[in-house]
Amino acid sequence: MDSKLELFTIGHSNRHIENFLDLLKKYEIEILVDIRRWPSSSKFPHFNRDNLRVSLESLGMKYMWIESLGGFRKFGRDVNEEGIAKCFKGESFRAYATYMLRSEEVRRILNALMDLSREHELVLMCAEKFP
């Protein structure tokens, strides 16, 4: 087994699908992991889960959606402790960072993705252009 460990990130933002797919091809991405909590876009329907899956599969790439890594976390609902990420001004960022650092489920998923990235070129996708 190759010991490399490399994960890419990308945000779809307002990109044209052709530009987006060209970036994935440039880095020889095999699997796109969609970490948006809600994998849809009313402004850019080509990034809706089913449309994106079809586009990726037409190029031989796989699509995975992992809701557990998505944002929009709140204290009292997703996180039951005080925020540890005091460097973020916004409560939502503190809640998300705390959730990511404290969740056993997130830890298991990230470990599995790291293992998968040792054998496949992987990219984690969110909505923001610069994740």
Mean pLDDT: 91
Largest sheet: 4 strands, parallel
- Strand share of the residues? 5-15%
Structural class by helix and strand composition = alpha/beta
Run of helices and strands: EHEHEHHE
The first-level CATH class is given as Alpha Beta
Structure description:
There is one protein chain. The protein has one domain: Protein-Tyrosine Phosphatase, Chain A (Alpha-Beta Complex), CATH 3.90.190. The chain is of the alpha/beta class and 131 residues long. 34% of the residues lie in helices and 14% in strands. The chain is built from four helices and four strands. Strand 2, helix 2 and strand 3 form a beta-alpha-beta unit. A four-stranded parallel β-sheet has the order 1-4-2-3, with helices on both faces.
